[in-house]
Design brief:
heterotrimer, A: eight-stranded mixed β-sheet, 9 helices, 29% helix, globular, B: Rossmann fold, 11 helices, 13 strands, 33% helix
Chain lengths: 318, 321, 275
């Protein structure tokens, strides 16, 4: 699996936030991302799934260089991301965000928005810039007349296409998609997913695809990492993971997917009422308070780094 | 048996500019779950708000029939509506944080409903609240009663909202996207809870959602809305076994289903976007996105029957769509 | 609804009118505003007894044409209003945007500066400065400009904080845009409409403050035709010749109201835009 050199490599990355700058509350660190590592070969799609507060968006921001890591490093093509200047980084890695209503500057035209990464490079002639923008717009399925419009005049799906065009106009190696279809209607979501898949094949892109929607991730990802409270608790090839989930949390996630099959009823996912809190990560296995299978040793023994059957499964019982 | 809620030809216009709901008819039978499904802007939430009499100012509601049990809601005064809301007819919303008042404890908000509608004392009301919190699966209800909304997680807040809606033993519960803001595991827990409560209390549930997965797992009866119109209505089994309206078919093809879809094979999708419907718009709202569109689609399209109890609004016969 | 639009339009017309009058003062004024004619002192306006069409608004205690002085006064008021807002706006917006965007230490410093500024008694400092350094138009503009930036800073700071966390800022950073680009081209245009409202408020305030300072004899030096100065110079004669106060007073009131109406209208427009 890792025979080809990794396009992107994340090594033991961590991020803590200090909260409670109050007078009496002592600052308690929130461990949003708590030691995440993975390597992804070029042309692959790593789906990162998890629920709110699991640290997936913080991870995305660190990988994009928008947020400094507390420790650990990110390498693209073997080179440290934090050693590059902003222009070089922009040529290698680009984002597509969740909400196309806030990811486009409302005061700019579509052409200005898409040409921003080119303009920021500082050495692209104007005429060539325009040509590349138009080519990119056509590629994401937007007509040339859209170039002069402002985001408010576009639908949600069209906006997301603009965001994709902006991400791809520099021909980056890696695209970080942070919930790119969650804010869209189902019929539009399918359009965007198809577009992303098509662009990946044609341009040889590598995606990090962050989502809470397992069905979407299964459709687009070649490999899946499940995050819980700041760590990847299970990682495997997509088919392997979906056919035989090993971590009880992965199993609960899969069980809670509601496929449109009438008569199947609502599954019992078997998780308790308690809620994961990154400011208060439990000792031992971080999932044990909600785990239906938890044993005594889960409260004290840490499963970090456990590998079962050649893949990462951070569970003592798997 | 007469339905708990009967709506016929409900229409809602916004300040004469947008025809948000164009002639929706549906019946919610006692003890059943009726799902109203559609994408954003299709008028499903507006329909629910219209039934509850909670439309924003500038909205005009009109209906041939709007009946809750034996009460004609079209003739009911605002006071009469207020007496009904939260009592026999309750509603829960998508974002529990904005529906709960951050300045009051859970207990006092829950008790207030009971005091207002039942004239009960604070003591009795709090006892009732604690009982219902237990019922919706909240451990240590006594502690939760004294807490403020921000101290609870999203899932707990939605449980509180459900408990609050149940305070006065409603006949009908209208739930507008009750799990959309929640994580998937929590969503499953909440939906399971709703299902259990419904069975045990004989509730009628009008569930509004965009998620066909939820519809399939929850609904007895389904109404599909598009651009303010009811485009298909059937039992859940019939709808998923034989979707008939081109929109319903397209929507189902859009959903990636774990274990069945192959990677690198495009998902089905519906081209284009939802149109904005102004008053006076005639014909099928889906015709611009429909691969089967005919000139006849520009005229008013009547509901036709695909099978007994299965209606759809399309000019084409069921076997052609 | 309709009435509000009307009020905004009225405000706009008033401001535009005064601005144009100020710009084209030399063309519009029937007389030289500085030319004294001691034989024709305190002539009442045309519509009063003893008035004539030679001096539509009469003359002052030195026999200068009141209408011409009023027209040239528009120039002073608009000049002070605009230059003060440009100066204070530049200071306030720079501080506010920096504090709001970077947060942390930078924001602490900005907040401290705002607090300091808010604890300075405006009129007293302005009076002291002018009293120490002598009065001149430039000094009035500089003093007001260096003092009236607080509201710009507060509004720029809060609006920047809202914009800072939006994804298009993150996208611009990921696109490799420079800090200057992000601040000037991504943040600023999106907070500008809020700042425009502040600008109208500050402009009205600056014009009133100039009038106040001039009235106290510490603003625009005589014989420049400032409306405040006109009121001050007329106050000794107000019992027998009330128009010497009424005319500049009413004009000042109308202009300030016009600016405020315009500002209110802009604010409503903003609110509508956000919904």
């Amino acid at each position: 699996m890792n025979s080809s050199p990794a396009a992107i490599e994340v090594m033991n990355i961590r991020r803590e936030f200090r909260t409670g700058r109050g007078m009496f509350a002592s600052a308690r660190p929130v461990r949003a991302v708590d030691g995440v590592s993975f390597a992804l070969p070029a042309g692959q799609v790593l789906g990162i799934v998890g629920e709110s507060g699991c640290g997936k968006s913080t991870l995305a921001r660190m990988i994009l260089g928008l947020l400094p890591a507390s420790s650990g490093e990110v390498r693209v093509d073997g080179r440290r991301l934090d050693s590059m200047d902003r222009r070089e980084r922009a040529r290698l890695i680009q984002p597509v965000f969740q909400d196309p209503f806030s990811s486009l500057n409302p005061r700019r035209t579509v052409e200005e928005i898409v040409s921003l990464p080119l303009a920021a490079q500082g050495d692209v002639p104007r005429a060539q810039m325009r040509e590349r923008v138009m080519e990119m717009l056509a590629r994401v399925g937007l007509s040339a007349e859209m170039a002069g419009r402002q985001p408010a005049q576009l639908s949600g799906g069209q906006r997301q296409r603009v965001a994709i065009a902006r991400a791809l106009v520099l021909r980056p190696r890696i695209v970080v998609c942070d919930e790119p279809t969650s804010a869209l209607d189902v019929s539009v979501q399918a359009q965007i997913l198809n577009l992303l898949a098509e662009l990946r094949r044609e341009l040889g892109l590598t995606y990090l695809f962050i989502s809470h929607n397992l069905a979407v991730v299964e459709h687009i990802a070649t490999e899946v990492a499940v995050m819980y409270l700041g760590r990847i608790v299970e990682q495997a090839e997509t088919d392997t993971l979906f056919r035989g989930p090993s971590h009880p949390y992965t199993r609960a996630l899969l069980a809670s997917v509601l496929t449109p099959e009438p008569g199947k009823g609502i599954p019992d996912v078997g998780l308790g009422e308690s809620y994961p809190d990154p400011a208060n990560i439990p000792p031992g296995c971080r999932f044990h308070p909600r785990c239906p299978m938890a044993e005594n040793r889960c409260q004290s023994e840490s499963p970090e780094g456990l590998v079962r059957g050649g893949r990462l499964v951070e569970c003592l019982l798997a | 048996m007469s339905p708990v809620l009967e709506v016929a030809n409900l229409r809602v216009d916004f300040s004469g500019r947008t025809a948000a709901v164009r002639g929706v008819s549906l019946k919610v039978q006692r003890g059943e779950t009726h799902c109203l499904v559609g994408e954003s802007g299709c008028g499903k939430s507006v329909s629910a708000l219209a039934v509850m009499g909670l439309l924003a100012r500038g909205a005009v509601r009109d209906a041939d029939v709007l009946r809750f049990q034996d009460t004609d809601l079209t003739r009911l005064s605002e006071r009469g509506m207020a007496r009904l809301r939260g009592d026999k007819m309750a509603m829960i919303f998508q974002e529990p944080m904005t529906s709960l008042n951050p300045a009051y404890t859970i207990g006092s908000q829950m008790a207030e409903v009971y005091e207002r509608h039942r004239g009960a004392g604070r003591r009795a009301a709090l006892d009732r609240a604690a009982e219902l919190l237990g019922r919706v699966g909240i451990t240590a209800p006594g502690m939760r009663l004294a807490q403020f909304p921000h101290q609870l997680s999203g899932g707990l807040r939605q449980r509180v909202m459900i408990a609050m809606a149940l305070m006065c033993d409603p006949e009908l519960l209208i739930a507008d996207e009750p799990t959309t803001a929640l994580d998937v595991t929590v969503q499953a827990q909440i939906l399971r809870l709703l299902q259990t409560l419904q069975r045990e209390l004989g509730l009628s549930l009008l569930l509004i959602t965009h998620d066909l997965g939820i519809v399939a797992r929850m609904a007895n009866q389904v109404s599909v809305m598009y651009a303010g119109e009811l485009v298909e209505s059937a039992t859940a089994e019939a709808l998923f076994a034989a979707p008939t309206h081109p929109y319903t078919r397209g929507l189902l093809a859009c959903i990636p289903i774990p274990g069945t879809v192959r990677r690198d094979e495009p998902l089905g999708s519906i081209p284009g976007t939802v149109p904005r419907i102004s008053p006076g718009f005639a014909g099928c709202g889906f015709r611009d996105r429909c691969t089967h569109a005919l000139p006849a689609c520009a005229q008013t399209v009547a509901l036709r029957s695909a099978a007994p109890g299965h209606a759809y609004r399309c000019v084409l016969p069921a076997e052609w769509t | 609804m309709k009435l509000r639009h009307l009020a905004t339009a009225l405000g706009g017309v008033i401001v535009a009118f005064v601005l144009l009058v100020g710009i084209f003062a030399p063309l519009l004024a029937p007389h030289d505003p500085f030319a004294q004619d001691l034989m024709r002192r305190m002539v009442p306006p045309e519509w009063m007894e003893g008035g004539s069409t030679a001096n539509w608004l009469g003359t002052d205690q030195l026999g200068r044409d009141y209408l011409s002085r009023l027209i040239y006064g528009a120039r002073i008021s608009m000049l002070i209003g605009i230059l003060t807002v440009v100066t204070s706006g530049t200071i306030g917006i720079t501080l506010g945007v920096l504090g709001g965007f970077f947060g942390g230490r930078v924001d602490d410093v900005v907040m401290f500066a705002i607090t300091c500024r808010l604890s300075i008694p405006l009129i007293l400092v302005a009076l002291t400065v002018v009293a120490l350094l002598g009065s001149s138009l430039t000094l009035v503009i500089l003093t007001l400009g260096l003092l009236l930036w607080d509201r710009f800073a507060v509004v720029a700071r809060t609006t920047t904080m809202q914009v800072r966390n939006l994804d298009y800022i993150a996208a611009a950073r990921a696109a490799g845009a420079s800090l200057a680009h992000i601040l000037l081209r991504e943040v600023l245009p999106n907070i500008l409409s809020h700042l425009l409202v502040v600008a109208t408020l500050e402009m009205a305030l600056a014009i009133l403050l100039e009038a106040t300072l001039s009235f106290l004899g510490l603003g625009v030096p005589s014989p420049l035709p400032s409306w405040g100065l006109m009121i001050a110079e007329g106050k000794d004669y107000m019992f027998f010749s009330p128009w010497v106060i009424m005319v500049p007073g009413v004009t000042l009131f109308v202009l300030v109201m016009g600016i405020n109406l315009l500002g209110d209208g802009l604010r409503d427009l903003l609110r509508a835009e956000r919904v």
